[in-house]
């Protein structure tokens, strides 16, 4: 599982336009025009692709996250109201993330489920950084909703980096019941603390899901981490609000820094 997680860091950096030499064996399959490596998936300028490596018998579904300077992305990020969602019945999901996913869902889910069914022995990893982690989460659950046999499949993984909270407590439980999920968080990153876990008037609270890999000392030892449960008060939740810094949102994650990559080429 950690190999998939490490691969996810490189796949995510590739989404931001950097070439990752050790990913050359991957065959990149995108969701709209098969001859292109990247595709503009929606009006918020997200980029996503599906990568298949027959040699490694693995499929990676990756979503680009928030791009600095893109005001529309940040507007999407800060919407805190919630909606119900048929792919996670009985739960409430962040409306902004859900709206962003619905804009690209028709271009992703059917082709993805077909690919997974054609390669039933392959490991499938859903991954994303920042807002891309939220989209990866919704993509994984939509695939399971479309193909119920994928639920609790040992070959399916969700691994995200600097991901915000996506839904309520029931949503977090639903994710845990259906897919193995790991979230990597760097100490001091403010984004995983949003939306807040405390009750918001007339809205309610948000909760994280899955296991947390917590990089305690990103400045001196970014490859070292500890394993925590969701919302563990001894891990990323223990950092005082005054010590949160946006610079840590880019990592480093296991020595890979997405900060410089996390921007449009002309920025």
UniProtKB/TrEMBL annotation:
List, alphabetically, the InterPro entries matched: AB_hydrolase_fold, Fungal_lipase-type, Sec_MonoDiacylglyc_Lipase
| Keywords, alphabetical | Hydrolase
- Record has Hydrolase as a keyword: yes
Q: Which GO terms describe its molecular function?
A: hydrolase activity
Domain spans labelled Fungal lipase-type: 60-196
N-terminal signal peptide: none
GO BP term (any one): lipid metabolic process
PANTHER family xrefs: ALPHA/BETA-HYDROLASES SUPERFAMILY PROTEIN, FUNGAL LIPASE-LIKE DOMAIN-CONTAINING PROTEIN
Q: What is this protein called?
A: Alpha/beta-hydrolase
The protein's organism comes out as Rhizophagus irregularis
